[in-house]
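Key result, reporting period 2: structure in, sequence out.
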């Protein structure tokens, strides 16, 4: 796998896409934690960086050229509450299992339902993951509409490793999809991933080009779904199939701001 190119190379590639009407609309699909919002010990403290909020608003002023989406592992409730994004943005939550569109007031949302069998497995997962966390300092359980996540960011390394190993074992027995992200093991009773969700949205929109940015292993599904021509951006260190890399979320905000300027300039002729 070749080393990813830097942010300057992506900036140039984005400007080329803006200049070519055959590549419109450009779908901009962004991960939330670690990409738009710096990682936090407390997931409820996460917020989109102020420069990214401003840039996303500026991008939303060009709906014929750019479409915005968040592509997140967060539950839809969490994502809508925490992510400050403009109306028209598509929210894909629970790693693709939930989908909605931000409206002027509220959310246009498809209701997600589970079969009895899936609900039973989700209930079983909740109990087993609580047992994984019990007695382990800094390990805690997050319940989502179709998944259960075991968080280990606050635990010491040995405790985190043991909890993640046990959570993966539970996932192997009860899960339909098991994701091992940054200091989290998430087990879903649905077989969803960001790649399938992104492919569906891309086809619906008829996107001529796609920018997709993410920081975690779960974002690799999305990178692979738009390879080889997709403008794929890895945020931070770690192995990746993405074509481009930047160090941190502020660089993503800066790239989005530059894209907005390019769109303003193109619109002004
Ligand atoms: O796909 P994402 O938008 O990146 O969501 C993935 C998970 O994000 C959250 O956990 C991660 O961020 C937390 C806040 O910075 C951090 O404390 C945790 O260690 C990270 O794994 C969220 O809590 C999960 O539900 C998401 O699946």
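The corresponding designed sequence is given below.
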């Amino acid at each position: 796998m070749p080393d990813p190119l830097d942010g300057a190379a992506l900036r140039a590639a984005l400007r080329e896409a803006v200049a070519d009407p055959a590549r419109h609309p450009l779908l901009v699909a962004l991960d939330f934690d670690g990409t738009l919002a710096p990682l936090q010990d407390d997931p409820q403290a996460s917020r989109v960086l102020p420069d990214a909020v401003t840039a996303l608003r500026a991008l939303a002023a060009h709906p014929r050229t750019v479409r915005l989406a968040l592509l997140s592992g967060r539950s839809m409730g969490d994502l809508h509450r925490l992510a400050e994004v403009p109306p028209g943005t598509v929210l894909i939550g629970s790693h693709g299992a939930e989908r909605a569109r931000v409206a002027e007031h509220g959310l246009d949302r498809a209701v997600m339902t589970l079969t009895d069998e899936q609900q039973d497995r989700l209930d079983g997962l909740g109990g087993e993951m609580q047992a994984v966390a019990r007695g382990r300092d800094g390990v805690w359980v997050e319940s989502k509409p179709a998944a259960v996540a075991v968080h280990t960011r606050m635990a010491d390394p040995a405790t985190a490793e043991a909890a993640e190993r046990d959570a993966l074992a539970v996932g192997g027995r009860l899960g339909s999809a098991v994701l091992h992200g940054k200091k989290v093991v998430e087990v879903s009773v649905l077989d969803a991933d960001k790649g399938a969700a992104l492919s569906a949205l891309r086809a619906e929109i008829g996107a001529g080009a796609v920018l997709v940015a993410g920081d975690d292993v779960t974002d690799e599904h999305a990178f692979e779904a738009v390879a080889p021509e997709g403008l794929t951006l890895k945020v931070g260190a770690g192995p990746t199939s993405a074509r481009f890399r930047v160090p941190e979320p502020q660089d993503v905000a800066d790239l989005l701001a530059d894209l907005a300027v390019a769109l303003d300039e193109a619109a002004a002729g």
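The first helix runs from residue 7 to 19. The mean pLDDT is 96. This case is discussed further under Risks and Mitigation.
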